[in-house]
Amino acid sequence: MKVAVGCVKWGTRFGPDYVNVLYRAVRDHLRYPHRFVCLTHEPEGLDPGIETMPVPDIGVPPSEWLKRGCWPKVALFAPEVFADDEIVLYLDLDLMIVGQLDPFIDLVRDRPAFYTLREWNPPIWRVLPLAWRPDRGSQGSIYVWRAGEQRHVYDHFRANVDYVRENFWSDRFYLPNIAIGATYLPYEWTASFKNVCVRPWPLNLVLPPRRPPAGVKVLVFHGRPRPIDLMGRPGERWGSKRRSGTEPVPWVRDYWTGYGGRLPAT
Description:
Blueprint (H helix, E strand, L loop, with lengths): L1 E8 L6 H14 L5 E6 L10 E3 L32 E6 L3 E3 L4 H9 L3 E5 L19 E9 L5 H8 L1 H7 L3 H8 L3 E3 L5 E3 H5 L20 E3 L17 E2 L4 E2 L4 H9 L8
Parallel strand pairs: 1-2, 1-4, 2-3, 6-8, 9-10
Antiparallel strand pairs: 4-7, 5-10, 6-7, 11-12
């Protein structure tokens, strides 16, 4: 069985440290032999163990990659990126790997499908059992699939660029719609930092963010804050209006620096 881990780096939001930290964390938490592939036009500063290649042409100019969607992830399905028999684990750059990743690979090996996260519900719904909560669709931080089973995705996008961008707000809506056998990953394997770890107001004013629950394998940072935002000087506010803090988070900092990430200048 061949295994590959993929990510995409473009623009200025995420520097090379994000790729390097993710690569080293994956190396510690994935027992399967694998290659780590980063699609990027700017490979400078990346660890020598990371395979890099330019982002394949998706029919959308780079200046519009973030307009009416977030589309570079479609390039992961281009035929030159992964071999047909590779199981691919795609990870966003702003993640923390906090548990073993092997089960993600085992899912596709044992039950072939296109696996994605289920989008989290607002707090008012999270008091209910998962089956009773509204299904808000896919969340695009993690995808897992066998490359050869989803080759049509890239071809379909290239042939229908205008239609897709007019009818799908983002990759997280498009990919599960076009992929074969789209299904959700086990809900308990992942957690949202801002929804699960950050205390609700006003508790966040006096209590620091909690660690992710036991059993979580990947901690997802989506929107604000980013991991690097949690390593500034005391008193610097981070986060969104309702999910925020003003102090560095030591366990996030220790993860980042432990995998060679540089701290922001103070």
